[in-house]
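Changelog-adjacent note: as of this version, every example in the card shows the full chain rather than a window. The one below runs 186 residues end to end.
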Amino acid sequence: GWDALVAGGDSTRYWRADGDEPMLGTAPQLVAVARPWGKGRILVASRAFTEGAASNLRFHINAHAWLRNGRPGFIRWTTAHAEQSELGYFLINFASSVGQSWLPIIGPVGTPDLAATGVLYVDDPNLDFSEAERQSILNWVAGGGGLWINASGARWQAAHPGAAPETAHAAARLLSGTGLHPVRGS
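Full-length structure tokens:
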């Protein structure tokens, strides 16, 4: 149920998957995957792509609109799971550029926090979400919410030597049951 989202440049030739004429541009690179989840939507992006936010602003605007899917509410992000701190600065500026209000979630994520949320961002968490948080988030998405997760298996693996990001990464645990998880070297 996951769809791959790719981006490419314009400097070399590559062959399309259907084998037709070569295309001019760099070979497309996977930058995110997305899927519907109940009435809502989930997008998981590579950390490296999201860090290039200024050059990927059009992607962020389009992806955010797709996740929001007409739902009112704040742009919110989690802060209690040792996430990357830079995301909040980006989202404050991003919210202004798309005419949205923003508000971080301080502490554990609960159903009341999500009630007034349009899109929830989780930025490469290092600490697990509790089962209650995980259920609140996935139930909220199934009810129509939009969830954006940045996850880097390589970054997480460097901080957790010997552990497998496929099962032990906090984003993998959050996404359990959705059919997706961070991988080594991503």
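Structural remarks: The chain has a mean pLDDT of 81.
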